[in-house]
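Researcher: Here's my situation. A collaborator sent me these components and asked whether they could plausibly form a single complex. I don't have experimental data yet, so a predicted model of the whole assembly would be a useful starting point for our discussion.
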Amino acid sequence: EIELTQSPATLSLSPGERATLSCRASQSISIYLAWYQQKPGQAPRLLIHDASNRATGIPARFSGSGSGTDFTLTISSLEPEDFAVYYCQQRFNWPWTFGQGTKVEFK
Amino acid sequence: EVQLVESGGGLVQPGGSLRLSCAASGFNFDNYWMSWVRQAPGKGLEWVANIKQDGTEKYYVDSVKGRFTISRDNAKSSLYLQMNSLRAEDTAVYYCVRDCNIGPCDYWGQGTLVTVSS
């Protein structure tokens, strides 16, 4: 089973700041990584797929990069609605696995 | 507009059974793999199972193999999860999700809560 490790667990930032979230895989997963955003009481929402492709309707301030084992989600300038939990997920090998999440909170 | 609406959750005793349903609309259901993903209270996400467009391939996370069965009815645009021999650790919100195989998990339902407790 491929393990995904997200860091940091919590990111304390202010609106307008840049957020950089990391996801590291226990073995190479090529580019088969997605990022999801989840707000309290809501279902996750797909942000980025195949490491760097924004999903439909996702603002350009969200970007993804990486391949192999190291991936990054960047939010260029935080908006108030971006404070949430972010998960990475791989679909390279069964079973598909998720990271444990990074919470982006108000500083 | 893609919509996925889960139903069937509730309180069940350990060892009991429950069947979850997901009604899909707004897309050609039989063109997509479909999945179930769960989230225990206050915890992260766990992929549970998925099923190919024609139902001929099914995959499960080890912790539910032999207890859960995923199925679909393309004529009704519906996805199901039969859960038997339920355990306390199966307590979670269960999400119906489109794809998660050929592509990412691109659309999610709002989830249905399953609570396993005596």
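Model: Some features of this prediction you could bring to your collaborator: Chain A has a mean pLDDT of 97. The CA atoms of residues 83 and 104 of chain A lie 5 Å apart.
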